[in-house]
C-alpha cells in the first residue's frame, strides 16, 4: 500500500471504524454473557412464580433466593403514616452546591418525595445563605445545617504535625490517591469517628449518607429506614470493592492488636471471612463503599465501635497514612456483627463515579422501575467484593 493511501483520511477512517466495531463487539459479548448468565440464574423478583430454573450451585442465586430479604415484598414498608427516626446525612462544601442539588433531586424524585425524611447538612465552614435556600427548595423534608465543631475536624494533640506533613508529601510524590490532601484526611476521620456525635444527629437513630454528584436510577417505593428498623439491621450497602493498600499500610496490624486487647467485643460468628481470606492473618482489602450507607447510628455510638475508633485514632494512621472511613467502617461492621445484620440493597441502583450498582433482574427494567444499564453493573467485575459477599456464610 503506498504512503499516500495510508495517510488518506478515508483509510484512517476505515481503520478506526474497524477498531471500534471490533472492540464494541468484544465488549458487548463479554457483558452480555455475564448479564445473561445472571439473568438465567437469578429470579429474585418473582421467587414465588419460579419462572426460571435457578441453579442452586450458583452462590449468587442461592444468596438472593434463600438468604436475601427483599424489602419490596413487605407491604408494611409502603405506608407513610409511621416513619423511622431517621435523616439523610450530607457532609458537603459550599462549592459543591450544584452537585449536591443533582443528588438530592434524584433521591427526591425516586424516593423521598413519598416520605419526606429530613436532611442534615454538615460542613467544616458555615453554609452560605445561597446553599441553604437552593437545597431546602428541593425537598418538603425539614433541612438542618450544621457547622462541625473544631474538635471533630482538627489534629488531636498526640499527632506530630511536622511528621504528618512529611508523610503527605511522600504520599503525594508516590501518587497515592488523595495522598497529599490534608482536608481529605480530616473528612475521613470525621466520617469514621464523629459524624454520629454531631449535635444535629444526636436526635436520630438511622441515617442514609448522601454525596454530591451521585445518581439514583430506580424508583424506591418502600421505606428503607423502616426496613432496617423492622429487621433489626445495622448496615446497608450497594457497592463493595478493594481498597488501595498504599493508603492503609499499618491499618490491619493495628486492627489485629485491637482484637487481641478487646476479645470481648468480637463475636465468634462475625463476618471476618468477608474481610480476610485466611481467618484474620491478612486483610483482603474488601470494604463497603461508604459514600452510600443506610445504617444504624447507634452502632457507631456504642462502646465497641467507640473503643475501636479511639484505638485506631491513637495510632495516628488517619494522618500519617491516609485511612479512609470506608475500610474503617467496613472492618468494624465485619468484626462486630453477624452477616444477617448487614443488608445488600440490590434494588437501589446507585452510581458514584466510576462505579455503578444496577440490579440485573429483568423485572427492574421491564416494569420501567429502573433506567440504569445492567451491563455496567459492577457486582460481577473482578474489583467488586460483592461476589464474595454472596458466597460467604
Ligand atoms: N465540608 C466539607 N466536606 C468535604 C470536604 N472534603 C470532602 N467533603 C465531603 O466528603 C464527601 C467525600 O468527599 P469526596 O470528594 O466525594 O471524596 P471521594 O468520594 O472519596 O472521591 C463528600 O460528600 C464531600 O462533599 C471538606 O473539606 N469539607
Ligand atoms: Mg464522593
UniProtKB/TrEMBL annotation:
Pfam families assigned: Glyco_transf_15
GO cellular component terms listed in the entry, alphabetical order: Golgi apparatus; membrane
> What protein family does this chain belong to?
Belongs to the glycosyltransferase 15 family.
Give GO BP annotations, semicolon-separated. cell wall mannoprotein biosynthetic process; protein N-linked glycosylation
Name of the molecule in the record: Glycosyltransferase family 15 protein
InterPro entries in the record, alphabetically?
Glyco_trans_15, Nucleotide-diphossugar_trans
- GO molecular function term, any single one: alpha-1,2-mannosyltransferase activity
Q: Which UniProt keywords apply?
A: Membrane, Transferase, Transmembrane, Transmembrane helix
Q: Which PANTHER family match?
A: ALPHA-1,2 MANNOSYLTRANSFERASE KTR1
Question: What is the originating organism of this protein?
Answer: Diversispora epigaea
The organism's taxonomy opens as: Eukaryota, Fungi, Fungi incertae sedis, Mucoromycota, Glomeromycotina
Q: Which Gene3D superfamilies match?
A: Spore Coat Polysaccharide Biosynthesis Protein SpsA, Chain A (3.90.550.10)
Active site positions: 293
Question: Which residue spans traverse the membrane?
Answer: 9-27
Amino acid at each position: 500500500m503506498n504512503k499516500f493511501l495510508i495517510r488518506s483520511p478515508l483509510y484512517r477512517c476505515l481503520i478506526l471504524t474497524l477498531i471500534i466495531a471490533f472492540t464494541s463487539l468484544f465488549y458487548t459479548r463479554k457483558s452480555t454473557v455475564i448479564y445473561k448468565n445472571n439473568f438465567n440464574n437469578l429470579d429474585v423478583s418473582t421467587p414465588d412464580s419460579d419462572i426460571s430454573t435457578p441453579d442452586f450451585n450458583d452462590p449468587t442465586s442461592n444468596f438472593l433466593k434463600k438468604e436475601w430479604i427483599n424489602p419490596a415484598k413487605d407491604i408494611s414498608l409502603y405506608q407513610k403514616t409511621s416513619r423511622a427516626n431517621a435523616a439523610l446525612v450530607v457532609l458537603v462544601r459550599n462549592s459543591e452546591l450544584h452537585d449536591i442539588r443533582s443528588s438530592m433531586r434524584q433521591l427526591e424524585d425516586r424516593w423521598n418525595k413519598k416520605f419526606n425524611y429530613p436532611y442534615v447538612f454538615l460542613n467544616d465552614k458555615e453554609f452560605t445563605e445561597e446553599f441553604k435556600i437552593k437545597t431546602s427548595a428541593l425537598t418538603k423534608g425539614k433541612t438542618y445545617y450544621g457547622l462541625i465543631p473544631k474538635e471533630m475536624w482538627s489534629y488531636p494533640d498526640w499527632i506530630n504535625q511536622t511528621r504528618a506533613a512529611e508523610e503527605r508529601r511522600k504520599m503525594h510524590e508516590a501518587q497515592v490517591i488523595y495522598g497529599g490532601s490534608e482536608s481529605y484526611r480530616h473528612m475521613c476521620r470525621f466520617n469514621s469517628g464523629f459524624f454520629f456525635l454531631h449535635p444535629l444527629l444526636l436526635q436520630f437513630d438511622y441515617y442514609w449518607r448522601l454525596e454530591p454528584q451521585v445518581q439514583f436510577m430506580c424508583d424506591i417505593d418502600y421505606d428503607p429506614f423502616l426496613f432496617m428498623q423492622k429487621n433489626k439491621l445495622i448496615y446497608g450497602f450497594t457497592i463493595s470493592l478493594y481498597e488501595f493498600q498504599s493508603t492503609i499500610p499499618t491499618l490491619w496490624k493495628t486492627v489485629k492488636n485491637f482484637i487481641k486487647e478487646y476479645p470481648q467485643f468480637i463475636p465468634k460468628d462475625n463476618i471476618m471471612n468477608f474481610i480476610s481470606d485466611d481467618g484474620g492473618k491478612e486483610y483482603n482489602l474488601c470494604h463497603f463503599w461508604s459514600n452510600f450507607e443506610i445504617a444504624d447510628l447507634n452502632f457507631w455510638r456504642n462502646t465497641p465501635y467507640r473503643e475501636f475508633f479511639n484505638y485506631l485514632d491513637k495510632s495516628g494512621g488517619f494522618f500519617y497514612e491516609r485511612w479512609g472511613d470506608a475500610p474503617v467502617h467496613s472492618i468494624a461492621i465485619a468484626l462486630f456483627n453477624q452477616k444477617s445484620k448487614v443488608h445488600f440493597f440490590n434494588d437501589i441502583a446507585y452510581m458514584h463515579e466510576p462505579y455503578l450498582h444496577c440490579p440485573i433482574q429483568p423485572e427492574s427494567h421491564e416494569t420501567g422501575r429502573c433506567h440504569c444499564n445492567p451491563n455496567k453493573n459492577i457486582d460481577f467485575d473482578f474489583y467488586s467484593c460483592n461476589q464474595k459477599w454472596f458466597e460467604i456464610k
